[in-house]
Specification:
The structure holds 2 protein chains of 2 kinds. By secondary structure, chain A is of the alpha/beta class. Chain A has helices spanning about 35-50, 85-95, 105-110, 115-120, 165-175, 185-200, 220-225, 230, 285-290, 315-325, 335-340, and strands spanning about 55-60, 75, 100-105, 125-130, 180-185, 205-210, 235, 245, 250-255, 260-265, 300-305, 340-345. Chain A has an 8-stranded mixed β-sheet, sandwiched between helices. A 3-stranded antiparallel β-sheet of chain A has the order 8-9-10, covered by helices on one side. In chain B, strands 7-6-5-2-4-3-16-9 form an 8-stranded mixed β-sheet, with helices on both faces. Classes of the chains: A alpha/beta, B alpha/beta.
Chain lengths: ~350, ~625
């Protein structure tokens, strides 16, 4: 019998991408965007310096949620929508672990929407990878909460009549401390964003614009297409001016209470007028405006849009526990039982 | 020294049942705790039962708003809060009206005469003045101006009118301390502790308490007082305990004895919330609680914590168990230890949240998709909620299975005297952990005796593996849709649960080992059933009781025990779920049934009546 993929191959000093590969076949459709994401995650892990036994991947249900079976770490394939809370339990139980939650637009925004907003609100230290292909893949082609309004799908033959969620808006609305967006066709940027998410202490939400080759092919082409991506995307980096375009001649400025796209060199606009990205600003007003930018009036913001360090849930809990232990006279259960008791001789 | 009443006749009695009733918000529950704690301290046995509406403050003075607390104090062992009261304290006409059917003939009824006026009669739905219509003839009525005297006693303390009025429950307690020759000092200590941070309130309540006592000394209707002597021949360390607190502490004991950290993922729900509340106070003992956004998140966070190596539990009531069912299946599939506490209440849907029922047995046994066997055990007294929480945790971890522990609203809020166990002498708990870099480790490799898999946790070197809700190949733990593997795994999961019968005690029979009638009960009905059965035994009847705590798997000697009796009757606070379950396993036996579904516990008297009828048939 072949060596089972579930079996560990032992430890070596410095992990490489190969250490995170499984021997079993990866069963996504040929051409699925998830393959590139998997490779980027494996590369990021190899580079992150995290001890490989400390890494845990948790998922819910959906195509993306098969992820834990395809990466050689501790893994938990949970229930539909519940990955975020399983991951929360793992992290709270052992804050030393490096917890990753892999989910999709249905798993995190529909059946698991409630858990998503609460995990973000609590700021539990984990990385949430949302594979957003704007369609239900595993159930074969029904619309999802992120499907653009009017889309014809198996369950919306006359076009959807629902407004889509933007994961970034929900993250901001839940007081998220980290939000990034990347496209599945850009492995280097993916790896970079995953590394930054991994370093961030708190809930890191990464929306990956992922292509479903079967049910929603080319859904992100307007953003990721080779010929248009430079003009239709702005890749944000902390401390750098918000400039984009094939010729790097366009920028984002603040005008009145909103953002505006301007052309450098026109109307006396120079690089100095362009906003400089401050991902670490505690005030998320600009981040919120950035995640809302949509084509055709704006480029779609990618890269790390928000990265603000605030106290994590598990650290706050640990502090309370340390304080309680320091103050209490109770050392064990027997002491607890004895309170308000009396002896009969 | 206790202040003794000088000018009264003292009668020694074996037991007395007292009921407090007033508006919810009148402090009836607190009064109950004060009397029970101080009685317990004085060496009496006791059993209590609170009876309150689910509304926090239902309209004052109405029947819907009546909150009650019943306490049974004994010189001998008491098993239930008592069928009917010897003494009723009714702070308003609604409290009187709602409780007249629960007092014994000739009982002493202490009323707050200040609230017995036309306005209150109307609210309570009295057409005629109950004090004048002859309905109270034969009772010993004490018409005490409780509200006005309470207020008068605290006038100079500068309390707002509401707080001043709220001291009146202490006036009523003062009367009872006189009536039962209780030590005033113990009551005052209780008040001091309760209001430790509010000196003025402590002073006000103590004053009113003493005033009630002094008032009672002057009342003609209270010339006879009663003494319930301490229980003799009982040694050790004791305290008064409710089921929910005992259960919470049992979980902490599991963690301590197994060397694990306790993680409780839970969502507040009546009548289970106290478990979460109590454990959230126990960070000092390494307890982590997570108040989740819903019931589903509660259990799934616990499953995550279990995967990460904690002793994990979730607590809920029936509606929450329904929401958790999919995740219980996940724990079955991943074969991870987990304790799911269900403090049952009357259902379906929201039902009657504060009223006890045993209606969730079938849900616990079968309420999941797929073939999803789960261990089900039930506690049967407030204090043994500690022991069965302990056993639930021990079984869950040693056999790597989810365990549903059934309690109910009656046990949860009821209290009894508890002889403290020595936790260090309880059976050890040895979870099947895996050594780092164990080359033989495979995720679904099994213990040959128990069939349980082993517990490798994230962070451990050389043991990386994946688990999840998809069917797994036995031993390797690979995802498998193989038909024969699935069938095999279904049988293994069931067999693993059945083998736990080898690790639990035999079913115990209270009374003769064989005979005419075997009474069967499970869970929280124990107090009423044992009292009824013992009474009938004392009267010379051939009757025994078998109370089940282990429901799935059943104790190994169950069939043999049942077959030794001519007749068997299964008594439950539902329509007969346990009887149906037993019937399916022992089709050769004819199970008689006695059922009550009123949101109320059994009364001893009704049980005896039924058993006598069967014995005479």
């Amino acid at each position: 019998m072949a060596e089972p993929a579930n079996k560990d191959t032992g430890t070596i000093a410095k992990p490489s991408r190969a250490d995170y590969k499984v021997s079993q076949p990866v069963k996504w459709c040929a051409g699925c965007g998830s393959f590139a994401i998997l490779a980027s995650v494996q590369n990021a892990l190899a580079e992150s310096g995290v001890r490989k036994e400390d890494v845990v991947f948790v998922s819910g249900i959906g195509c993306s949620s098969r992820f834990p079976y395809y990466i050689n770490t501790y893994g938990f394939h949970g229930l539909h929508g519940r990955g975020a809370v399983i991951a929360s339990g793992i992290k709270i139980a052992n804050p030393g672990l490096d917890v990753w939650h892999v989910t999709g637009d249905g798993d995190s925004m529909a059946i698991g929407g409630n858990h998503f907003i609460h995990v973000v609100r609590r700021n539990i230290d984990m990385n949430i990878l949302i594979f957003n292909n704007k369609i239900y893949g595993l159930t074969k082609g029904q619309y999802s909460p992120t499907t653009p309004r009017g889309s014809v799908t198996k369950t919306s033959p006359d076009g959807t009549i629902e407004n889509p969620f933007k994961p970034g808006e929900l993250t901001m609305g839940s007081q998220g401390t980290f939000f990034a967006r990347v496209v599945d066709t850009e492995p280097k940027r993916m790896k970079q964003v995953f590394l930054e998410a991994s370093k961030h202490r708190g809930t890191s939400v990464i929306e990956i614009l992922q292509n479903c080759v079967i049910f929603n092919n080319r859904i992100h082409m307007e953003i990721s297409g080779k010929d248009v991506k430079d003009d239709h995307q702005i890749y944000l980096e902390h401390g750098k001016p918000m400039i984009f375009g094939k010729n790097r001649d366009k920028g984002i400025i603040l005008e009145r209470a909103g953002l505006k796209v301007v052309k450098l060199g026109e109307d006396g606009i120079t690089e100095k007028d362009v906003l400089v990205h401050d991902a670490c600003n505690p005030d998320d007003t600009t981040h919120y405006m950035l995640v809302r930018m949509t084509l055709p009036d704006y480029p779609v913001a990618t890269g790390v849009i928000r990265s603000y360090e605030a106290q994590t849930y598990e650290r706050a809990l640990q502090e309370q526990m340390d304080e309680a232990r320091g103050k209490s006279k109770l050392k064990n259960v027997q002491d607890l039982l004895k309170q308000n008791s009396w002896n009969v001789k | 020294m206790a202040k003794k009443n000088q000018n009264a006749r003292v009668v020694e009695v074996d037991e007395v049942v007292v009921k407090f009733a007033g508006d919810s918000g009148d402090g009836m529950q607190l009064s109950g705790f004060q009397l029970s704690d101080t009685s317990a301290f004085a060496g009496n046995d006791l059993s209590t039962f609170p009876d309150f509406p689910s509304e926090i403050r239902a309209p004052q003075g109405t029947l819907a708003g009546v909150s009650g607390f019943q306490i049974h104090i004994g010189h001998k062992a008491v098993q239930t809060p008592g069928d009917k009261a010897d003494v009723l304290v009714a702070l308003n006409p609604a409290a009187l009206k709602a409780n007249m059917k629960w007092v014994k003939p000739g009982a002493t009824i202490i009323i707050d005469i200040d609230n017995f006026d036309n306005k209150h009669y109307k609210k309570a739905g009295y057409v005629e003045d109950p004090l004048g219509d002859g309905s109270l003839v034969g009772y010993n009525i004490v018409k005490a101006p409780i509200t006005s005297l309470s207020k008068a006693n605290v006038r100079d303390l500068g309390l707002d009118p509401k707080s001043a009025e709220r001291t009146r429950n202490e006036f009523a307690l003062g009367i009872l301390y006189w009536l039962f020759n209780k030590d005033l000092k113990l009551g005052e200590d209780f008040i001091s502790q309760k209001f430790a941070k509010k000196e003025i309130l402590a002073e006000a309540n103590k004053r009113v308490f003493r005033a009630g006592f002094s008032y009672a000394e002057t009342v003609e209707a209270l010339r006879t007082t009663y003494q319930i002597n301490p229980i003799l021949n009982r040694k050790g360390r004791f305290r008064n305990i409710t089921g929910n607190i005992a259960l919470a502490w049992g979980l902490i004991a599991v963690a301590e004895r197994s060397g694990k950290e306790l993680f409780l993922g839970s969502y507040p729900i009546t009548p289970a919330s106290e478990i979460l509340q109590e454990l959230s106070k126990r960070k000092e003992l390494n307890v982590k609680t997570f108040q989740a956004e819903d019931e589903i998140a509660g259990i799934n966070s616990a499953i995550g914590a279990s995967f990460a190596g904690s002793f994990a539990a979730t607590s809920t009531s029936g509606p929450g168990l329904a929401l958790k069912s999919e995740a219980i299946g996940l724990a079955v599939m991943t074969e991870l230890p987990l304790v799911i506490v269900n403090v049952q209440r009357a259902g379906p849907a929201t039902g009657m949240p504060t009223k006890p029922e045993q209606g969730d047995l079938m849900q616990a046994l079968y309420g999941r998709n797929g073939e999803s066997p789960v261990v089900v055990i039930a506690s049967s007294t407030p204090a043994n909620c500690f022991d069965y929480a302990y056993m639930a945790g021990k079984i869950a971890m040693e056999h790597m299975v989810p365990v549903i522990l059934l309690s109910d609203g009656y046990l949860a809020n009821g209290s009894e005297l508890w002889a403290l166990p020595d936790v260090s002498e309880m059976p050890s708990i040895d979870p099947p952990m895996v050594r780092d870099n164990d080359e033989d480790y495979q995720p679904y490799k099994r213990d040959p005796e128990k069939l349980s898999r082993f517990w490798a946790v994230p962070g451990q070197e050389g043991l990386r593996h994946r688990v999840g809700g998809l069917e797994k190949e036995n031993i390797t733990g690979e995802v498998s849709h193989g038909p024969l593997n699935h069938e095999r795994m279904v049988h293994i999961r069931e067999e693993k649960v059945q083998r736990i019968a080898n690790y639990i005690p035999d079913l115990k029979v209270h009374g003769g080992d064989s005979g005419e009638l075997l009474v069967i009960g499970w869970g929280g009905t124990y107090g009423a059933l044992i009292s009824a059965v013992k009474d009938l035994q004392d009267e010379g009847n051939n009757i025994s009781l078998a109370q089940f705590n282990y429901i799935k798997p059943l104790p190994k000697n169950t069939r043999e025990v049942i077959h030794r009796f001519d007749k068997v009757i299964v008594c439950e606070i539902n329509t007969g779920q346990f009887a149906t379950y037993l019937g399916a396993q022992f089709p050769e036996v004819r199970f008689l049934k006695y059922n009550k579904i009123q949101g109320l516990p059994f009364m001893i008297s009704e049980l005896k009546e039924k058993f006598i009828q069967i014995l005479e048939d």
